[in-house]
TrEMBL record:
PANTHER family reported in the protein's UniProt record: GANGLIOSIDE INDUCED DIFFERENTIATION ASSOCIATED PROTEIN 2-RELATED, MACRO DOMAIN-CONTAINING PROTEIN
Polar residues compositional bias, start-end: 330-339, 585-595, 646-655, 672-683, 717-731
Organism the protein comes from: Rotaria sordida
UniProt xrefs under SUPFAM superfamilies: Family A G protein-coupled receptor-like (SSF81321), Macro domain-like (SSF52949)
This protein's record includes keyword Transmembrane: yes
Protein name as catalogued: Macro domain-containing protein
Keyword Transcription regulation tagged: no
């Protein structure tokens, strides 16, 4: 057999057997692609629209391209070589369908790039309506552009072939190379950019952390879903490159060698190469898309199995459904058992929180007046008309204060801050990384000590865990880690429920630990992509309903747009705002007569950094350093009360500390030494004197007892401190004069 006969036989075998098998598998695969991507959970996804369009176009390519090729091979008769209309129509239809399929794959790559882009305007391309519109535009575009094929493609003689000739053959070769390579370049470029964006996103969510064990050099890996998605896209690009790059190369070669005389063997080789480039490899690509998905993605394989099970499964009876539900219960309970410490306690606290808040007669006005200066010092103040200044509102049925400010949450003084963490609890980008760096490596050690519920998940989305603040103890006492949802516009309701659960469980833990203040950030509104307006609506409504007995809820926001969204939402929800600078003269919750009756008290615990229970409301501080003493020596008691001896102790110190400070200050003061010597001589003279009037001594003791009683009342009422000091001075002078008379 000659080379020409061998090539003709090989072409016939490839067409009759290989293409026939590929046709059957391709039709089945395209139908399975349609079944899977048309499911409810995939149907509204923009990328699924492109995959559905690709499956439809590939199915039409198989029907319009392989079936006529099989008929020609078996009947040994090609109607396109004898009918000009069929020649034009087949070339036009196959070219249009192939370009629509390639364009759909390129749009899928662009869609994946837009999904993981950091630019909000680019992410808007990842929408269902835009995907449908782009598919329609692509169809119209490729129905119009190849009209020249209907005009210039015809049966060419001699050799009886369906194609172009002359100048058009050169133009068509350039056109074929351009329209074939442009989708290929788009696929490669946007696939590469999508992979880069995924890596950057993963680094922001899971940054490099210094490990102290043997796994320090272990590289960071992307999430499995991202790897599987990128594997599908890259596999499609590779198969497309292998199957289509030969067609423009052959077209360019044919144009260059069109005027060269060729031998029979060379014409046979060119014909075989033309068959491979123009028909066989292109048809193989159309038939292999489903199997590329099947080999590259494990979830896709599971979805295929599930779809087959849904098709062939028998209707379940009521007993089978109940038994299956019982089998699923242990897995749910095992997950709940792992989060027993924080989840069950927070649920118990949330259940009894309304009863606790109703039982505690919490007076927010009294709390605000007592802590006004401290609130202004911690969170700032400003006129209400000033933009991006701290805003104060009443929430929780006017039992709590909401503060919205812009700043750094790691420097905001609250009892607990809520960290927008991830499911791994290993730190990440944004606020999560800032908090981990501020708290130190101890926080990371405490986080990784928690048991993993599933693979890589220590904290399920919507749940919260409370830990100590470690190196941030100067500004806060606890760090509440909560896992916010990654926003998906096709799961809006589920994301909103998960975000609501984040705020709810965090507030439940704050109520459980009797915290006086809690600081939030805009959970999930950063790299997790939750829209600021929707996030503000969920956050403010939740804290308004679930604040419980937490008096102060602070939102520390880092971005101007997010701050504006929170303020706008607070105004839309009609929260009662007030100016904390004018809280003495203007009370937004009571009438003017009531305001006149409320006395503004100075905060005696201004330097006290320890957390106070909101149910204690700054109890009055009493100084028992002298009340508890029963002085044996009247001279020493008088000396302790002399105004010339300074006292460096504060009213909030304990009795032991005050006595120690008084003793140390008395020893160091020079005036004290002189007074001690004078009073010692007086004591010696009193011991020698036997004619001392005991009645005068008794009157002095009664005077000092009265002074003790007045001192106790004065400590109960801070407004009388100055009066008490004057009384103390006067009594001391009287005692000194009486002693001088005795001398």
């Amino acid at each position: 057999m000659t080379l020409t006969e061998d090539l003709v036989l090989t072409q016939a075998i490839l067409t009759r057997y290989i293409l026939a098998i590929c046709m059957v598998l391709g039709i089945i695969g395209s139908l399975f692609d349609l079944i899977i991507f048309c499911q409810k959970k995939f149907r509204s996804n923009s990328c699924s629209v492109y995959f559905i369009a690709t499956s439809i176009f590939n199915l039409l390519v198989i029907l319009c391209g392989i079936i006529p090729a099989l008929l020609t091979s078996y009947q040994n008769y090609d109607i396109a070589l004898y009918s000009s209309t069929f020649c034009k129509a087949r070339a036009y239809i196959i070219h249009v369908l192939l370009m629509m399929s390639r364009s759909s794959v390129a749009l899928a790559c662009i869609d994946r790039f837009a999904l993981c882009s950091r630019n909000a305007h680019i992410r808007r391309l990842n929408q269902y309506n835009i995907a449908i519109l782009l598919v329609i535009i692509v169809c119209i575009l490729w129905l119009i552009l190849p009209i020249h094929v209907l005009i210039y493609i015809d049966i060419q003689m001699p050799g009886r072939r369906c194609g172009g000739s002359g100048t058009y053959l050169i133009v068509y070769s350039i056109y074929a190379a351009i329209v074939t390579l442009i989708p290929l370049f788009i696929m490669i470029i946007f696939s590469f950019l999508a992979i880069q964006n995924l890596r950057l996103s993963y680094i922001r969510i899971h940054p490099n952390i210094v490990y102290t064990n043997e796994n320090i050099n272990r590289p960071i890996r992307m999430q499995k879903r991202d790897i599987q998605l990128m594997t599908i896209v890259i596999s499609e690009v590779v198969i497309y490159f292998i199957s289509t790059v030969w067609f423009p190369i052959y077209t360019i070669y044919l144009t260059i060698t069109s005027n060269i005389s060729k031998t029979t063997n060379r014409l046979a080789i060119e014909g075989f190469i033309r068959y491979l480039a123009l028909q066989f490899l292109i048809f193989i690509n159309s038939c292999s898309i489903f199997y590329i998905h099947l080999l590259a993605s494990k979830p896709f394989r599971q979805e295929c199995v599930n779809s087959q099970y849904d098709i062939y499964k028998k209707p379940k009876t009521l007993s089978e459904m109940s038994s299956r539900e019982k089998q699923n219960k242990p897995s749910d309970s095992s997950q709940q058992q792992d989060n027993r410490f924080n989840r069950q306690d927070s649920q118990k606290s949330a259940i009894g929180q309304q009863d606790r808040s109703s039982e505690e007669n919490f007076d927010i006005i009294k709390y605000l007046h007592n802590n006004r200066d401290e609130l202004m010092e911690r969170y700032g103040y400003g006129k209400s008309s000033k933009r991006r200044c701290p805003r104060y509102y009443f929430i929780n049925k006017k039992k709590s204060i909401l503060i919205i400010l812009q700043g750094d949450i790691t420097r905001t003084k609250v009892d607990a801050i809520v960290n927008a963490a991830n499911e791994h609890m290993t730190g990440g980008g944004g606020v999560d990384g800032i908090i981990h760096r501020a708290a130190g490596s101890e926080l990371y050690t405490a986080c990784v000590a928690h048991k993993k519920i599933t693979q890589g998940v220590r904290l399920p989305t919507g749940r919260s865990r409370i830990l100590l603040s470690y190196n941030m103890s100067s500004t806060t006492h606890y760090i509440i880690n909560t896992a916010g949802p990654v926003y998906d516009r096709y799961r809006k309701e589920e994301c909103a429920k998960e975000l609501f659960s984040c705020y709810q469980t965090s507030l439940a833990l704050a109520n459980l630990y009797d915290l006086e203040s809690i600081g939030f950030t805009a959970i999930s509104c950063g790299i997790f992509g939750y829209p600021a307006n929707q996030g503000a609506d969920v956050a403010l409504r939740t804290v308004d309903q679930e604040a419980g007995i937490v008096p102060v809820v602070v939102f520390v926001l880092w971005d101007d747009d997010i701050y504006d969204a929170w303020v706008r939402k607070a105004e839309e929800l009609e929260f009662t705002s007030f100016d904390i600078e004018n809280i003495k003269t203007k009370n937004p919750l009571t009438s003017s007569n009531d305001n006149d009756q409320i006395e503004t008290k100075k905060n005696l615990n201004k330097n006290d950094d320890q957390p106070r229970s909101p149910t204690t409301f700054n109890p009055p501080v009493r100084d028992f350093s002298t009340h508890d003493k029963t002085p044996e020596d009247n001279t020493k008691s008088l000396l302790d009360r002399l105004p010339s001896v300074p006292s460096d102790t504060s009213d909030t110190q304990k009795t032991a500390d005050m006595e120690e400070d008084d003793n140390s200050s008395n020893e160091k003061h020079p005036l004290h030494n002189q007074q001690t010597q004078d009073m010692a001589s007086v004591t010696q003279e009193e011991e020698k004197s036997t004619t001392k009037d005991h009645s005068e001594q008794k009157s002095v003791e009664e005077t000092m007892d009265q002074h003790h009683n007045k001192q106790i009342k004065t400590n109960d009422d801070p407004s009388q401190l100055t009066v008490s000091k004057k009384t103390n001075n006067s009594h001391a002078e009287v005692a000194k004069n009486e002693t001088a008379k005795d001398n």
